[in-house]
Amino acid sequence: MTSWFLFWGLDYTNHNQILIFVLATLFGVFMAFNIGGNDVANSFGTSVGAGTLSIKQALGIAAIFEVSGAVIAGGEVTDTIRSGIVNLSIVNVEPMQFVYIMMSALLAAALWLLFASRRGWPVSTTHSIIGGIVGASLTLGYMLSSGNSALALVQWNKIGTIVISWVLSPVLGGIVSYGLYYLIKRHILHYNERAKEKLQSLRGERKRLNEEHKSSFERLSEIQKISYTNMMVRDAQMVLGEEDFSPEELESEYYRKLHEIQQKRETISAHYALQNWVPLIAAAGAGIISSMLLFKGLKHMHLGLTTLDNYLIMGMVAAIVWMATFIFAKTLKGNSLDRSTFLMFSWMQVFTASGFAFSHGANDIANAIGPFAAILEVLRSGQIGSESAVPTAAMVTFGVALIAGLWFIGKEVIQTVGHNLTTMHPASGFAAELSAAAVVMMASTFGLPVSSTHILIGAVLGIGLVNRQTNWGLMKPIAMAWVITLPAAGLLAALSFVVLNAAF
Q1: Which of 228, 355, 334 is nearest to 274 (CA)?
Q2: Which residues of 199-211 are buried (b: 16+ CB within 10 A; e: fewer)?
Q3: DSSP E strands: which ranges in 250-407?
Q4: Residue 498: pLDDT above 80?
Q5: Of the candidates 338, 459, 408, 322, which has an alpha carbon nearest to the alpha carbon of residue 42?
């Protein structure tokens, strides 16, 4: 795929700076590869950990939804400088120096992500690329002017918001996840456990009834056995053939007691929580995921939908999911509670993870494609623009690289998110993913500085707090990795910029 893109890109850039173009492409694809290995693994980590999907199934579904999100809704244009984190207009930057900044940022962020992925640390790809751009820009600033002028290039208030996000993101994710899973556990899982205990007690009662009946029957005479057997046959025909029979019509003591046990079983309403609470939660989840797709995942497609249109679509999706889940729950009536609960939450979890993956592919691919598109624009036109067009060929190539990264180096991060931080079940995995999606949407609405990776980790920790099974020992190096992501990427980018500037 990269070879094809290189062949295509030579014409696109008018054969300008061929060596730079080849290196920039390799750096960009390498960055997309490592985004796949670290960030994409977050989307399906809880699904794998909960046993909903196998690793191979998760890879296949992620391949479809991540690439679709990147190609369909990845954006036609992208900001030249990620998040406006640096202001290069205050110094005289030549176009090729700008290219070296972006190349350095891509390489530095990719190297840091590779390092983190191999250790199973989920870190922010956005913070990585921002750190790379800041480090390379500061280096150029020191080369062109004094130290104070170089420091003035950086929008330090934006750096401050990133520092805030180190705490805000996991805390928000943890609070929402804790609240949602606590409600699920209290109203659904605990209800099911109590229902199972009552059903188990009734099974024991029925077993004792059978033993007592067998013992009593064996003590009867032959004539009494024939008479009692005829009574039971008539009772069996009545029980099986008539729905509105009266218990007083039953002749045998065995069937009267059996009918009493059956009446007790019906009063338990074992599938009550699955038929009433789960469809409501599924509908709320569908609304949140569809809002994420409409307001974030598909925002670059310019569909012409008003805010009211989006809310109406969300309402329709939620209603359809509520009806489908309710009917599905009714079809499971009679099956074991454990299996029914696992099946329902498994479907919901896969749905949530798929929507999260599509939105992720549409948004976070910009961490690789943004700087690369800026490089292409400079190589093609010789000028630095405020925005750069994103060729479809580049989006497809980077989407494929994203999935290749997930396949080759994503398993460690999946293991961390799905297994090592806490034990996952489809219900808890669904709660973590839905909470992360809800917080991402809430943060986008209010303009809060958050990281989707940090939010999801916080959500997983929230699940662990409810279950009292959190691996805080593993969280320490992950938190440290979050803190050093920005300076580590910045330092690597500074070194890369010095090398590129000296070499070319």
Answers
A1: 334
A2: beeeeebeeebee
A3: 387-389
A4: yes
A5: 459
